[in-house]
Amino acid sequence: MxxxxxxxxxxxxxxxGAVAFFFVLAAFPFYWMVITSFKTNSxxxxxxxxxxxxxxxxxxxxxxxxxxxxxxxxxxxxxLIIGLCVTAITLVTALPAAYSLARLTGRNGEALxxxxxxxxxxxxxxxxxxxxxxxxxxxxxxxxxxxVVVYPTFTIPFCTWLLMGFFKALxxxxxxxxxxxxxxxxxxxxxxxxxxxxxxxxTVVIFTFTLTLQEFxxxxxxxxASAQKPITLGVATDLIRGDIFxxxxxxxxxxxxxxxxxxxxxxxxxxxxxxxxxxAVK
Amino acid sequence: MVSIAEPIAKPATPLRxxxxxxxxxxxxxxAPAILYVLLLVGVPFxxxxxxxxxxxxxxxxxxxxxxxxxxxxILENPVxxxxxxxxxxxxxxSQIIGLILGKFGALLLLRPFRGRRIVRALVILPWAVxxxxxxxxxxxxFDSLYSVINWTLxxxxxxxxxxxPNWLGTPHLAMLSVIVVNAWRFFPFAIVIFLAGITAxxxxxxxxxxxxxAGFWRRNYQIIxxxxxxxxxxxxxxxxxxxxxDLSIVFLMTMGGPVGxxxxxxxxxxxxxxxxxxxxxxxxxxxxxxxVLFVVVVAMLRFIRRREI
Amino acid sequence: MAAVLTRDIVxxxxxxxxxxxxxxxxxxxxxxxxxxxxxxxxxxxxxVICGLEKQTSGDLLIGGRVVNDIPPRARGVAMMFxxxxxxxxxxxxxxxxxxxxxxxVPGAEVDKKVAWASQLLGIDHLLDRRPRQLSGGERQRVAxxxxxxxxxxxxxxxxxxxxxxxKLRASARxxxxxxxxxxxxxxxxxxxxxxxxxxxxxxxxxxxxxRVRQVGSPAEIYEDPADRFVATFVGAPPxxxxxxxxxxxxxxxxxxxxKDMMEDGSFTEFSFRVDRSEYLGSERIVYGVVAGFDPNQVxxxxxxxxxVAEESIRPGEWHPFAVRNSALRHFDxxxxxxSGH
Lengths: 282, 309, 341
What we know:
Mean pLDDT of chain B: 82
Structural class of chain A: mainly alpha
Radius of gyration of chain B: 27 Å
Shape of chain B: flat
Radius of gyration of chain A: 24 Å
Number of domains of chain A: 2
Order of helices and strands of chain A: HHHHHHHHHHHHHEEH
Distance between the termini of chain A: 41 Å
CATH topology of chain B: MetI-like fold
Largest interface: A-B, 89 and 95 residues
Largest sheet of chain A: 2 strands, antiparallel
Largest sheet of chain B: 2 strands, antiparallel
Distance between the termini of chain B: 55 Å
Structural class of chain B: mainly alpha
Strand content of chain A: under 5%
Number of strands of chain A: 2
Number of strands of chain B: 2
Mean pLDDT of chain A: 86
Strand content of chain B: under 5%
Oligomer: heterotrimer
Helix content of chain A: over 70%
Low-confidence stretches of chain B: 1-12
CATH superfamily of chain B: MetI-like
CATH architecture of chain B: Orthogonal Bundle
Order of helices and strands of chain B: HEEHHHHHHHHHHHH
Number of domains of chain B: 1
Helix content of chain B: 55-70%
CATH architecture of the largest domain in chain A: Orthogonal Bundle
Number of helices of chain A: 14
Shape of chain A: globular
CATH superfamily of the largest domain in chain A: MetI-like
């Protein structure tokens, strides 16, 4: 029946049309980011050019400039160091805390867990004022180490809550068997709970790292010296000379900084979701 | 026959089995986390409260108590009232747009189609990528001279070059721009939340509804929406809290301008407290975020009690 | 000397008493079964003995010494869990060696003991596999080997057969019982299945609502139940219990026979109207109503099919049935056994 097929075809087109709309909506700014980083300056700053494709051949000059004439590599290094340190601090603090709240403290533990998690919601734009005084007091003002001290204030609550979910999902029999077989509670934690939650721990590590990379408010508040900036802050605020934005370099830097985070999110999205919804949804 | 043996009492010395004691180990394990949070979140929070009722500035770090004077000061300032209003407009505008986009995006992504994986991966990007970097890309897209949006509008003949809107330099357009960017950041998260909620609905329930004669819209609004409400509420709470207190987008795109048209609470607190050094007034401004946060936290607690997270 | 001795163990969770005062003695080498319905407290009691839970009050002695405040690893007990609790990330060899390594037993000795335990259970060819590569029966044997390798004073088993399907259960039952008889370790075995209890136990402790109702050999429990609960919990189909003379009268279905099957001796007659009968091959179960008792109460009789004529159990008719007086059990109004009439 032609009428049914026409209406079916219409449905299909509008479906794919809608999908295309979302696709373009989400992805266009990134396409713009990519293409800007490869365009020559003369191509970019010419209003008469069609902006959607290359008019001059693509170039690597922005990337070269980024690595040779700016502090980009320093910023990358800073972010790496901050990420590693914060992840280490978070793991050492959150792993035992999560285990305790999941296994060792019963009903009080639940309440405490929720309490710790709620501190994640206290906004940085409220805490940055007193924290800037604390940081100054510690002599860390204008240094990236201020961030190493401050970032765990939000990574620890969130990761404790995530890890609680993972520990609760372990069957308690294995830890109990280890206890009967001769481990202390602490031994059961180290030898059984941790090895068996490695996937969850890996997720938490990746997530903590991306949280530190994403952060902007504290970085803006505590760090103004260019050489101390982490990568997100550096790219967003430091590639300006006077009033002139170095858009090519900015986009190139943004691209490089975004890729690892985007990849990590995509690989771990499913696991991350089930962590948030407590494994109830898969 | 069984004989009852005499008990040979061997007292267990407390220290020997200390690593086995639940209470001891439990408290020991949580201690570092609690300490960190108390020292670096709890104490600063109290400090912020105190700053707001003191006369503390960077240049004159005085702990003198001034009561509610700071609050009176800022409330008398018309710019502040505009800031307060802006924050609500910014938050609710972007949340609503984000939710609507998220809902429909989720419905589209439910149906398997070729290339769905790639689409899904790319649709996540706005949320996954660091906020400052994505914002900077939009800043470039809104640039007063080289905006690709304006180029497209001119090319389509909708406006001429002289009429081309200055997105970040015109008050209402600036607010629209920041709302768009924030909604754009939020909608992938909304999609993920909606997908999680909808896929959690047991297929039997949906089938039963179809057999009972419910069409698409009735199924949607009477079955699906109530069942995903809890999860969507959680997502909305997160989104609202982060948007209401955010300063990144405003800082990078408009610096609160033009003339305070896009100034929001988080940004204003930063300007006053950090840039100008007027800590006490800055704290007072930031504290205006608390009532909304409080409502949100209470709502979340009540919700948690109903659903075991 | 008793291997395990408990005195008035009480375990409360908040206001709820899971274990309500259990005093039990398990002599060395005995296979003691804790039998009871779900939620009766038997598993909690076992966990208290093991040390995974601490009792609210009461004393626990293992091997003659008080272990109230001592953690599991120092009590000399080994436990086998319902899902075996094997360490998934260890090989079978490491699983069995684990209890020895935690006690810092020297390496050569560990190898010797692991070899001994695995040979005893016939799994020495599986030592390098992972638990997920083993069948259910093999996993059970690994769990037993691991429990045994420390030569514990007591072996505790928590419903180890409940995850198996019916066919495997019988052979698994056989294996465990034979194993215990060969090795001679004191064993406490928790189950809700009365067939398992009757088939495996040297002695059975019937538990309900946190209290021991009766302790005795399978024959004592079956023939001489201490109260209505024990009488009806053990035996399938359950004992018929009817109200009579401000007390209760009980008789087992296999003792409720047509009158002309009665041999000499005193017996009590009943008039029995058959409503339904089930032919099960080796026996015939007949359901009906007895005159003089509650007309809504169904009475069961278990008859050997070969010896029963069709006419004596035709449905819808009243037939003379009887129970030997020595098979009648009397209970007072509280449900306790009495010698009444």
